[in-house]
Amino acid sequence: MEINMKNITKVGLSALAGALAFTSAQAGSMSISGSMEASYTTKGGASSSQPLGMDKELSITGSGELDNGVGVAYKQTTSDALAFSDSELVFTGVPMLGDASIALTSTGSPISAIDDVTPTAFEEANAAVGSIDDVNGSDGTYGIRYTLADAFGSGVKVDAMYFYQHGAGDANADNGVASADNGNEDGFELTLQGSVPMVDGLSLGVGYAELNKSSKETAGVSDLDQLEGTAYAKYSVGAFSLGAQRSLVNQAGLNDVLFDTTYLGISYAVSDNLSLSYNEIESNKNQGGLDIDQDLDSISVSYTMGGMTIGVLDADSSNDSYSAGSSKSARSVSMSIAF
Is residue 324 in some structural domain? Predict the structure, then answer.
């Protein structure tokens, strides 16, 4: 039996619209929050450039409640250039949805949120060197997201999202014309995460994404769909946390490309403020029967003082960005402040 995801989303939206009909919003609240990060980074095996950097983000949020008890929350973020970026509208307490929430959002996606969950004190191993083709789904594309924090009392979190056209970016303007096809069709993502009963400190998670593509703009290609999958295990005991994860990304085309990536990480909390970690990534790219392995490793340290975090990263790579013989290294010190 074939499941028509477009029909399912139409039914879901119709039910949501019916639940929200003939209601008005009560007085809510608006707030602005954000963060900034200043860094100093040097790299070996790469061209020299300005070592000083800065990153910043602002978020405008609002929340309220409809007369029928349905909660409404809105979020709009901005880019470094203070241009509007990701946005989302979240509904909670919707009749027939129980404790689940449903959102119209481009703020992240389920599988992108767990692309690498191995424990780290500061940054992932590929934060400053290398380029990994890991699971990312259609992160940044506006879609419909369903989240249930505790499915049937099992402790398992269900997070699913449907995209009408993956890669289309943020939402169109109100009543705007749909974006061009460009060969991209619909897509969906699903993740399951939870703690293991009777095993303190152990948690597991899996994720799957499917991005459908049309072949009509590429002669001689009948199937361009992209499939992504990942699974992880994390275990914490005392001040130590360990994690292992494996991800597969299959990009179909004239010459199928398969990325097979393994992540390992261990962190140690020296105190409530100071943490250390070691992370390693091994990513294999197979295209047309040819293999190349990219290896990355890093040591990171973080120290927090209230809303400020000082982070230090030392990272190295071989066959950087799947380029044979290319080796890179990076050393970075950063200061981030939340306000």
Answer: yes
Query: Residue 290 forms beta bridges with which residues?
Result: 287
Output the domain CATH number for residue 326: 2.40.160.10
Total number of domains in the chain: 1
* Total-model pTM: 0.84
* SS3 of residue 153 by DSSP: helix
In tens digits, the chain (339 residues) has pLDDT values of 344 555 555 545 555 555 555 455 555 678 888 888 999 988 886 555 788 888 888 888 999 988 888 999 999 888 776 677 788 999 999 988 888 999 999 988 999 999 999 999 999 999 999 999 999 999 989 999 999 999 988 899 999 999 988 887 777 766 565 555 567 888 999 999 999 999 999 999 999 999 988 755 455 555 568 999 999 999 999 999 999 999 999 987 777 899 999 999 999 999 999 999 999 999 999 998 899 999 999 999 999 998 899 999 999 999 999 999 999 999 999 999 988
Classify 6 as helix, strand or coil.
helix
Closest CA to 100 of 69, 64, 146, 154: 146
CA atoms of 329 and 298, how far apart (whole Å): 10
| In a domain? residue 75 | no
d(CA 85, CA 240): 37
The residue assigned the tokens 């991800």 is 247
